[in-house]
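Q&A log
Question type: sequence-to-structure
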Amino acid sequence: MNSANDTTPTVEAILLFKGAEVVEQMLYSEFEGVLDHVTCIPDYADERVKGCYANVTPDLAITGIIFFYIDFDEHGYADRSWSLPLRRLMGMAGQGPDLGAGPIQLVCRTRCPQPEMREELWDPSIQPGMNHFQILKQAIQQNELNINQQLAVSQSSSMGCIDVALAQSQVVESEESKNRRDKLAEIIKSQRFRIEALTNECKDKVDALERARRHDQIQYNEHKRMFSQKFEQLKVRYLKREEQLNNAVSLIARMLDVEDAEVIKEHLDDLRAVGNLADLSTGDGNAEQMELIQTKAENYLLTQQLVQLKRICNAMNKKMRDMEGTDIPTVVPMASKSA
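Response status: OK
Response body:
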């Protein structure tokens, strides 16, 4: 049991989240049993859970909240090394938003009085539809923990009730100007907390976008490098093909300008060499073109050889006709010595 001030008793409640909902509520004494492994929570097995420590008044008003993390093992037992001093932190808490009973005492990651414990805390969201303060307020209003009954038991076992004379002796500030200043101070503090929470959320979003931008930039640079490399390879292949085709055209042009079959044959050998090189370094289309050029050149060479053979045959026929017009001496065999 804890108190927000000297006159109002409160109940210490522990609320555990799952997603955006409060699915587990317990008194602080029950939470101590969870920490001591007297009980386990199988629904939270092997999870890091968002939890809240809240001080609640008899009229179900929240006077203080601590937003903390707690880890559970694979069997649903709380981490034995968890030792966050909730009551001590609440005693050092600063002011938070007004949840209906004045500004609450608040401890979270950005409002942590002990910097070394900051990593064990988390910041609540105040976005519409995901306002953790409103979610907690609604969960407490359902009164699943029977807050009034718990306070009645606590008061009956205490060493007496609150001294009425002491309560009446407290100074009541009734000046209108002071009330306005106090109200204005509460509004300013509430707005400061809202600004801090929104700033942290925006910073997280900016960090996420920056990480995504760096990742996209790395991918872009890698793709750019690959495309540049492929472009250079294609450029080299194109220049080689263009050079080979120009050489082939030059060879054909020289072959058509000469009449000597031996020269044509020499150029044909060069043309075959160019064709073999094209077949090894280029695609099938260029190899087919070189084969067609070679075939035409060979046909041309055979035609030239056929013309030369015809000239030789015509010359031989002419000599035969000349020989038929002359007397051919008869060769008489010589008598043998025995005759």
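Response note: The chain has two domains: 2-148, 221-322.
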